[in-house]
Every structure is written in C-alpha cells, then in structure tokens.
Design goal:
Shape: globular
Low-confidence stretches: 5-19, 21-27
Radius of gyration: 21 Å
Structural class: mainly alpha
Number of helices: 5
Order of helices and strands: HHHHH
C-alpha cells in the first residue's frame, strides 16, 4: 500500500578525480600505522637496545606481505630515513645489523611484487 511518492530516489554524485588521484588517495589511508611506523624509525638510533621497537616495526611492515602496493605511497618516506641511519651506523655493528634486518623486511615484502 505504497503511494507514488512513498519511494524517494537519492541521487549521489562522486567527487571528480582522475584514476591516479583516486588510487593514491585510497592507498594513503591503508597504512593505518604510518605515524607509529615513522615514529619508530626516528626512535631507532636513540634506542639501539630496544628490540621490541624493531620487532614492532617489522611486524607492521610484514602485515603488507600480500599487498605491498599499499605501502608504495609511503615507501620513500619510510626507507629514506632508514638508509640515512644505516650510513651513520658503520661504527656500531649492532645498530648496523638491526637496521639491515629492518630494511630486509621491506625487501621481503616487495620481493614478489
């Protein structure tokens, strides 16, 4: 017993974006731990004995093993500081090894892509 005005259709319009903008914007939201990961990367030199910090960072990156493209928009901002730290860690074999382990995690995640 519905009348002609009982059903209203709503017209929804999508924002106008090209495919690349839409894809980049979508991917940026998938790395929900981005701020935490950046914070960990910056803390690594100050806390060279904190293995929990390193393992947390490796765990975050490892979650993206199946879909590494979700890390693509963030890769430069994550790896560049690690490489800078690595260059400065030559005098500390332990810190150098820790950074290499973390960088290796990125290599594993992107190996099949």
């Amino acid at each position: 017993a519905r009348g002609p005005g009982a059903h209203l259709a709503l017209k929804m319009t999508a924002p106008t974006m090209n495919k690349d903008e839409c894809t980049a914007q979508s991917f940026e939201s998938f790395l929900v731990e981005r701020d935490e990961l950046v914070g960990i990367i910056h803390k690594l030199p100050a806390e060279p004995e904190n293995d929990d910090l390193l393992e947390r960072a490796r765990s975050i990156v490892g979650k993206y093993q199946e879909q590494p493209e979700l890390l693509d928009p963030h890769l430069a901002s994550l790896v560049t500081p690690l490489m800078e730290q690595l260059r400065g860690a030559f005098d500390s074999p332990q810190q150098y090894h820790r950074l290499c382990k973390f960088i290796y995690t990125f290599c594993k995640v992107f190996a099949d892509s």
